[in-house]
Amino acid sequence: MRHPFTRTTFLILGGLLVWMADFAFVYVFAAVACARGFADVSWFGVPIVTLMTLLASLIAGAATVAVVRRGYRLQRDAAIDEHSRFIGFVTLASGGIALIALVLLVLPALVVSACPRL
Prior knowledge:
With 118 residues, this protein is mainly alpha-helical. It has 3 helices and 2 strands, in the order αββαα. Strands 1-2 form a two-stranded antiparallel sheet. α1 (5-36) packs antiparallel against α2 (48-76) and α2 runs antiparallel to α3 (82-111). The longest helix has 32 residues, at 5-36.
């Protein structure tokens, strides 16, 4: 089976790229909210920074699960060559690491305030 370089690279790194985009969005949003003074705004009793962190991470988690499922299907299919199965395994592993990183990204938003007053 033929594996185009760009497509295979994005498949393998897909979960990590999604995590990286979520990480950048969450921290830039928190920084802007603190700098502009709207971090104290709450929606349904939840601070806006926490809410946006949860929402963005849920979307990123769904995208990462889609990548992990694709890797799982490639890895489990016995009818394809070993090279394709290896690509599936690496995709599955990197997606699993990305899911753990997404959970660790959400935890501080649930525990600490976005803009501590010094």
